[in-house]
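Q: A reviewer asked whether we had any structural model of the full assembly, not just the individual parts. We don't, so I'm hoping you can provide one. Inputs are below.
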Amino acid sequence: MAVEFSPEALKQFETIVSRYPKKESAMLPVLYLAQQEFGHLGPEAIEYVAELMGQAPARVYSVVSFYTMYNMKPIGRHHIQICRTLPCALGGAEKITAFVKQRLGIESGQTTQDGRFTLTEVECLASCGTAPMMQVNDDYYENLTEEKVDEILHSLK
Amino acid sequence: MEKVLLRNIGNADSHRLSAYQARGGYGSWQKVVQSMKPEQLIDEVKASGLRGRGGAGFPTGMKWSFVPKDNPKPKYLVCNADESEPGTFKDRLLIEQDPHATIEGTLIAAYAIQSHTAFIYIRGELAFGTKRLEHAVQEASQAGYIGKNVFGTGYDLDVIVHKGAGAYICGEETALLSSLEGGRGWPKVKPPFPATHGLFGCPTVVNNVETLAALPWIIERGAAAYAAMGTEKSKGTKLFSVSGHIAKPGVYELEMGYPFKKFLEEDCGGVPKGKKLKGVIPGGGSMPVLRPEEIDKVNLDYESVQAAGSLLGSGGVIVMDETTCMVRAAWNIARFYAHESCGQCSPCREGCHWMEKIFHRVEHGEGRKDDLDLILNISGNIMGNTICPFGDAAAMPAAAFIRKFRDEFEAHIAAKRCTVRME
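A: Here is a predicted structure for the entire assembly that you could use as a starting point for your response.
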């Protein structure tokens, strides 16, 4: 089933491309726009972006698959990304991660049945001084404790 | 010590143009574009002794001077805001709390190489920082600091804020440029260097946020004032991001050459809960760990840390106390590099995963007699055999953990379990 941008999204696409000296440079922001519009970057979205950008679908696929922030499969409404790199590990990230898994009843890389939460473990988010911490969609939650995690999970509908 | 980088930070409004202007902000940019020739500007920054603060420490003025002046292609200036080195969070602070200093520095650097298009490449995860930056660019544009005919001098300069999409390797300058060209973040062989063949083959300079944020002060107060601080080879001040088992984690600005032990024990409050220091990484996750006795005579500057067998790098100080299992720490860092390898070079693509697997089995009671020498062998085969320094960044810490804490690794293998973790 082919997908395409709405007229508003097409306008945004034109604006994005016009900002750059060369069209190719717009690839990353255009992929973000497509992810926003279509929910995730599956095969149809990749083919559509390839058409818009005048590139081979395989090339667009190679870009999408390289970066962690492009989702090639659908994810839950709230993407919980817990940092696992050394400073956060020293700060108790492993315990917090185990706690979240237990609370949500899922493993890393999985989504809750109701589509509310997806959990992944990620690398350093430049928040080492306030470890342990997690990113949920666009927001950072720092200096986590089990109590704080419960509050945060409860507040994310 | 006079603050250069953190001087504007401290109030809730520090990110606003009004607050920045009230402290004389954009006065340096005006001085540069109205009254300085590019060669003059480059000489001034050379004289300051400013070195790149992303991790490599290359002299900034010298890097700018490599851009050929008679090349007809457009020049590009890129601010590297892709901060992803484990233990480092100083660029994020600058961008969130004082974005105008980075922007003003970006404009000054662009002028030095006669660029009319500057990019700020910011890692995708820093959504709040990106908002602050975009808003600040808007403010600066409305005020006429960015755009066409700046200060009526006829100089045009555009600034584009560009979001990354999650890849540590994009902090490496040639990988950043590959990404900015719309592709995978694949590093390129150097030479040629970006100064002559950068973005789309055009002369390009990539500078770190912290490097650029120092420029307004240097122009305002003069190169001599900056060079009066620090040591002979490490001039000025630097930001240190402190994390791990430490009483007062956070970002600190120090004059280069400050004693490491004093910094940890006094300024950062020492190791909490009465625990003893077991190891400390001075410059981010890619740098060799140091044992407590090794830091007694170390000062926080490029040459002193190098003499001690590590590197100042990004200044990401990661503190580990006696409860830390060094095998687990080594595995954690190895896992980071295995995940982040871009995959181009066989020694790195395969070697990083092998090292992660071997560290993992040592930590989990399945270590073999020859595993430590095997890791050292793999590490040695990665170093110097890759397109970019990522390979070295993965190889160095792996070897250092084993060399500095070999007893602990051997105990894990002999006991067939982790011998440090309190279960």
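A: Points you may want to mention in the reply: Strands of chain A lie at 78-83, 117-122, 134-136, 139-141. Residues 78-155 of chain A form a domain with the Glutaredoxin fold (CATH 3.40.30.10).
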